[in-house]
Protein: Presequence translocated-associated motor subunit PAM17
Organism: Fusarium austroafricanum
Amino acid sequence: MASPLKTPVLRMPLAGLVRSSPKASFSSVRPASCLSHNLRPQCYAPATVSIAKTFSSNVSDKPQPGELPPLNWNSFFKLRVSRRRYQLLFSITNGLFAGAGGAAFLSTGMAEPIISQIPLDPFMTLGLMTVAFSGLGWLSGPSIGNQVFYLLNRTWKKQMTQKEAQFFERIKKHRVDPTNSSASNPVPDFYGEKISSVSGYRQWLKDQKAFNKKKTANFV
């Protein structure tokens, strides 16, 4: 039979023994729920939730199958060159068609009242008006070519617009002051229209620095 003094000690909870032990450190103390066999899964619940959150965040950072990859600068310049070709193609085409249409319209004689008011030879007047029609067609080419290009490459339109805004911000930041130009020291590609690659942009930066050095040398 157990003595009366030992009975309270045996009935004391296990958590109390752990807490009352002077050798137990603060980091080694666990709550009573972790020591219980029935409640043991709750001790690992926070770790499981954190692992699940980390995994879900890593999955969300990956591009979705339907999303496009980010547009880099080399691809941007390639698309920019392609767009310029579309614009040039439609400028030439529109210029030819507009000139031919203008010549056909003038040959009908409907513009005789206007031609008679111009103090020039009628044939010269007709030629100048035909050239004017061709010029209007040429000027409308870039707008039409731009629309056709974005119609065929609509998936890149948003990213290309953003990249183009960043590109022109860089051009404005690094280009030289045109008021200091001269016949011997012209401005090197003020709008950056000739830049067609990353290496071309680096060369453009070198040209801007060379312009400033030459300007300083001429000033001294």
User: Anything to note?
Assistant: Residues 73-107 form the longest helix (35 residues).
